[in-house]
Amino acid sequence: MSNFDKDMKKLKALYAEHKQEEFMAHFTQMKEKYTSEEFRTIMINFVKGNYSRMKDEVQEIGNTIVLYKQVEPYKEIVPFKYIAERYFGKSAAWLTQRIKGTPVRGKVYTLKPAEIVTFNNALHDIGARLGSISLC
Asked: Is residue 50 part of a domain?
């Protein structure tokens, strides 16, 4: 592996780990060390690719904020543990992390579109079950 490849690997790792100051310092060193047009092209493509990914991540976080604002007023009556275990086969912590957008190991996880459908179906199912109860 060439020095350039090692430097790019490190740069990508710093980016993935959200170590912004270290990323910028390493990027600056690389910019001074590698001055070819090929390097500039590789870096432009790297930035463009990551910009697109960041845009998608920001959209996911925005969706999570909307979801949390919708659920938050009902958090005491919505059975997250039951929904997580019964409909997702996961823990209550897993579901709560995704609804709140809590960072886990440095990455923010959110509900995927299919999981939002599952969550909505769970709420409707629970509502229908509760609505069918009638004490005599």
From this structure: no
